[in-house]
Amino acid sequence: VIEERYLNDWSGTRYGTPVGVELPQSTGAVAQMLRTCNAHGRPVAVQGGRTGVSGGAAPGEGETILSLERLNQIEDFDRLGGIIVAGAGVLLEDLQRTVEAEGWFFPVDIGARGSCQIGGNVATNAGGSRVVKYGNVRDSVLGLEAVLADGSVLGPPNRLFKNNAGYSMASLMVGSEGTLGVVTRAAFRLVPLPPVRRTALLAVAPNVGVEELLFECRCRLREALSAFEVMWPDYVDEALRVGTAGRSLPGGFAGRRAVLLEVEGGNDVALGDELEQCLMELIEAGTLVDVVVSSSSRDAAALWAIRESVGEIQAGIRPYVGFDLGMSADAHDGFVGAAKELLAQRIPHAKSFFFGHAGDGNLHAVVGPCATPEHRECVEEALYSLMPPMVTSVTAEHGVGRKKKRYLARSRSADEIRAMKTLKRALDPNLILNPGRVLDM
Ligand SMILES: Cc1cc2nc3c(=O)[nH]c(=O)nc-3n(C[C@H](O)[C@H](O)[C@H](O)COP(=O)(O)OP(=O)(O)OC[C@H]3O[C@@H](n4cnc5c(N)ncnc54)[C@H](O)[C@@H]3O)c2cc1C
Q1: Across the strands, what pairs with 117?
Q2: Helix axis angle, 332-346 relative to 210-221, nearest 10°?
Q3: What is the pTM assigned to this prediction?
Q4: Distance CA 410, CA 210 (A)
Q5: pLDDT category, 153, cuts 50, 70, 90?
Q6: Ligand 1: which atom is nearest the Cα of residue 128?
Q7: For ligand 1, atom 32, which residue shows the shortest CA distance?
């Protein structure tokens, strides 16, 4: 009997009955398993922490689950060079804590940090809150070890900052969602741990676009700016109502978009002064209506809790449809207005909440309840119809998996999809790795 937890990812949808679970403890064991599956044409569902929301890790009919959870060792930590090599099954939070204890920082951070695995983070090219400063997982990967469908092993992971000897197979694996190979080990570059952080919540004036505020903050705060997260008014209200923030906001926030801003630096007083100066100027200019600045790390956590209340918000509108749309920040305000209007016409019973990593052009939405496949499709069609094809993305962050597959051609050209299929066939000719995900073939 297969334990319940292996049967779906965070999206909760089931796609069939798997035939078994394999929990290999070494790269060699992963290679052996894949060799056997490949020889017999047996399909494999690759699983990390199952916090993905695109259905990629959820097993399908007749698939054997390959869980990487036992490859959970930190294998090497170069404390002088700032490089860590870890097994794919290490939890993101464990990696973060390990390096922070030694004065280093792994800058990828997502709400699922306590459950997601670094192999899953690599496979989805995870983003998160600090992409505006540090980029996606791709920007932290130096090299990977990965097992191909026929059991051959790519590796050991490159650890050099510069290495142009041939193709970067690691770059190919990042974001391939378990369809091209199984990541078993990763080498990451770290950055020195910023000694101090400050968090502020800003109420944005109605006539100011989020991209204008972002520009002003970037110019004034420069490399100190480490997060810029926007929440539209419904989201803030709902987060305060259902969330765990445990704080209220001043009246100036009512009905306004809120931006969660984080800065980091080397000196507490200097950073505080820099932030205060920036916020004062923006209030004087009429760009901001109100601000709350954290006075302690507990206070900062309460502000972050508003942004991270998405799980509680989703729980109130199940079954919901989630979006992680990619479009430039100057399109966000117009898009949210148009989307709310269209949703009110087409599916009036559903609620919608918009928020996102505006700093990196990534707008999230959750819409629900959408009880039937028709409702779901109606919502998807409504939102995607407002996005110009090819210059926007149907998935900026979470990946295609199963849920966004039918919309891939809105963001990738026919030639690109053909090239992706050529790669898939070259590396996995029997199509055993995560079949039915990302590409139809
Ligand atoms: C509360 C919450 C907040 C989130 N916030 C963010 C966010 O801010 N940014 C973001 O990008 N995502 C976010 N996510 C989505 C999710 O956490 C990420 O996609 C994460 O990187 C998935 O890691 P995982 O280990 O759980 O992978 P899984 O869900 O197990 O798998 C995801 C995909 O990767 C493949 N895969 C997993 N491990 C491997 C491996 N070792 N080798 C090859 N393929 C593999 C799977 O087959 C599947 O296709 C969030 C999710 C939740 C629940």
Answers
A1: 91
A2: 150
A3: 0.96
A4: 25
A5: very high
A6: 8
A7: 52
